[in-house]
Specification:
Length: 236
């Protein structure tokens, strides 16, 4: 899980659940195995498992007084399943978690060669109260079309634009334009890849909502999250 902090008050307000595969003492990152799972028809099973385990931990933290929004990545392949919306609702509510505290992230560059088939599932998820995030915004070719069609609630600016933007005018321009677009569409904004105080300060000045990145905290096992949150101090 990787923590997310609000720029306005520096408080940790959310976490993203990240897939990691431990094999022979090494941690394998998702880009090495998620594509294979998708091609073998196992993406839905992975999504269900991560959502289930993440909600179990969210409930445990909540019972300990730590209330955090939860973000979970969803493979676009699963959005072709008409039963997905009902299934996700059942998984979340089985743990006593409200869908309104769960944000489903869809990677923008993968979001749909076949947008029409997934749009109905996404619309049902919004009606059930789930948040919808367009992940890695700006890395695909159909960003604006997706934003006009899909009922997103959050825009995540890709780390490739965020990292070092304080000293690179072209990157900063992309970040500013993304934040301006999000404001006009009334979307929450999350900046990925926030690693320096200078980038934190720039994003805060530009009115970004939430920071995610190594400055706030690296991804940690669930058992270590509470300590990670307690240790965090926002830059002045």
């Amino acid at each position: 899980f990787q923590p997310q902090a609000e720029f306005a008050n520096g408080k940790i307000v959310g976490i993203e659940a990240l897939a990691r595969w431990e094999r022979d003492g090494q941690v394998i990152r998702p880009h090495h195995f998620v594509g294979m799972l998708e091609s073998d028809g196992l993406a839905a099973g992975l999504t269900d498992t991560i959502l289930d385990q993440a909600c179990a931990w969210k409930r445990r933290w909540q019972d300990d007084g730590l209330r955090l929004n939860l973000s979970v990545n969803v493979s676009p392949a699963t959005l072709h399943d008409p039963a997905a919306a009902d299934r996700y609702q059942q998984i979340v509510e089985a743990h006593g978690v409200s869908p309104s505290e769960v944000i489903l992230e869809i990677t923008e560059s993968l979001l749909m060669a076949d947008a029409a088939r997934g749009l109905g599932v996404l619309a049902r998820l919004r009606l059930k109260g789930f948040g919808l995030s367009i992940d890695d915004f700006g890395t695909g070719y159909s960003s604006l079309a997706q934003l006009s069609q899909v009922p997103f609630t959050e825009l995540k600016i890709d780390q490739g634009f965020v990292f070092g933007a304080h000293s690179q005018p072209r990157k900063r321009a992309v970040v500013e334009a993304s934040l301006d677009l999000a404001r006009k569409l009334q979307l929450e904004t999350v900046a990925e890849g926030v690693e320096t105080v200078e980038d934190w300060q720039m994003l805060a000045e530009l009115g970004c909502g939430i920071a995610q990145g190594y400055l706030v905290g690296a991804p940690v096992p669930a058992e270590d999250l509470a300590e990670c949150v307690a240790r965090w101090r926002a830059p002045h």
